[in-house]
């Protein structure tokens, strides 16, 4: 294997350029997973947080993981290896702190905490210091901690770790290209610190921040660093004219520095659109494009003035999905691009942090599926192979016809999809459904419920593990789960909830659970992807036509229902959430795949009805998350998304009450779509705070007709809400939503909670709902703004 570092040192300086940047076969990636192939990061973090290891041990282990990553990458033959891709928790927070941008909320503890502990305090919170908010990262399932910046937040450079890593690699002959968030995206990802002056927004601080970026460029140049990667993913979303102008101005300023590394600016997670000509007009040396989300033609790139003089990092390998690229097609495309931009580097569309690390440690993915997959390690190989083919030519066999992919086709599924009629999506009008449901359910006003899951106790986890290991038979495993269901039902009756749940003891992760019960999905054993910090998930691979293997939930729900007179909700995960949390096949449009899942779930709805279940909840927390970043794709998406949900629920009888559970959005279009789902009751995940949700609902006059459960306490917080606190929210919600439409529930499932937290919380919730009922009965309640 060639060693890119030593080659750079030995052979490339005679070009005599101050900013060395020659390539032999341009190959790079924009970033790499940082959790380790066996989730080493999770283990080291949890050990430190629980007192099992010292800070020194954690720091050493983190460095080992980071260094192993770039050593391995360099050994693959990748010409340019990214650096600064490791993070102990979240790279957005790391980048804010790289420039000293710390929320003043933490000033009072800063002096007493080691910087690393202060960092974890911001990321995870302290008893009286709520953590920074968790926000979704550009349409991925990654979540970042939102930096808080005010009008006086001091900015200063803290690049010791970044520089030290660069120096360590250099001493091993490896030239790293540090990856840093660009200044504009960093500020646009941040929020104004609570208490900032009216009208202040973090982007107002851009000039000061750019000053510190210039210091960073200077420090890197002094250390002989040749290139820095500045990510500006904010520009693959719609931006204002002012923001676009700012992009030009900022990169003119940064590239004007007299001694500095080369600048690579990337726009990941979508198409740079109108930002591309702006960037091409600056003096940055290189631009990285996501050419997967939008395969921009070489001829349109040729029309961008100035682009042909840039080094183009062609992001043709998908950083967000797990399918192998079609070598011949991709090569042809790259060769066309090279005609336009001769200085071409084969690269990834995004950082590879959104895919699992290594396919080769999986042992039971069906062979024909595995043949088509590529995880981070394999993707690096794809980049190197394609780059060599671009520069040195490709072997003949790349152009031989690929094998037929008919393993995916199930004709019965295709026929069913083809036979879908519009009527299948429509239920009886709500005016008919409502009285029919009231007659069956006979619920009190402001009914109380929870959203599905109860704690996954050690007992449940142990039983699942033992069953997986073959030490517990299926029947024994079922016994454990049934005992758990019984306990959960009894507890809910004791607390006095009106609509009960079975508790989801059988589900480790809901998406994984349903994926395992449908054909067309494959599970991985080690395919972990970071969500944030130590939290990782294993998204299933949706490779083929989807079909239910048999009833998926009926046994559990009917058992729960047999134990109580009160209604027990059937609990399903909706088609959009199944899509949003899986690695989805790309050989057909997403909406076709959505329809297949919807049909499978529709059958489950029918089976639950047959088993006497009267309420069915279809969770769609990810519906909002799949929304295209740019306006132009949104209407089309929302149309088919609503259709898929309605296909799932559309077969339900008028008397069956359909609930859904969604993540609210501040985008009016999305809220309209929620209303179009035509669910009888909609409960809301507080992705920000419940008070934010309530204020949004108030601003819009609700916008969701029919029942609404806005969430009366945040179930994922450790705080146990008082009756008064919940009562206050109920009264505010009743004002906006109307008491006759209001449901009282926490904002989220309870599976990560402890019983000592949830039991008092739910008792207080039920007490608060009863207070509201007494007020309503006495006729003194606020009359709602019902529609
Ligand atoms: C993210 S959807 C949450 C609802 C799910 N039924 C649960 O309680 O876990
Ligand atoms: Zn959480």
From TrEMBL:
Example GO BP: methionine biosynthetic process
Pfam families associated with the record: Meth_synt_1, Meth_synt_2
Pathway: Amino-acid biosynthesis; L-methionine biosynthesis via de novo pathway; L-methionine from L-homocysteine (MetE route): step 1/1
UniProt keyword terms in alphabetical order: Amino-acid biosynthesis, Metal-binding, Methionine biosynthesis, Methyltransferase, Repeat, Transferase, Zinc
Signal sequence residues: none
Cofactor: Zn(2+)
Function summary: Catalyzes the transfer of a methyl group from 5-methyltetrahydrofolate to homocysteine resulting in methionine formation.
Family classification: Belongs to the vitamin-B12 independent methionine synthase family.
Record-given protein name: 5-methyltetrahydropteroyltriglutamate--homocysteine S-methyltransferase
Species this chain originates from: Gordonia jinhuaensis
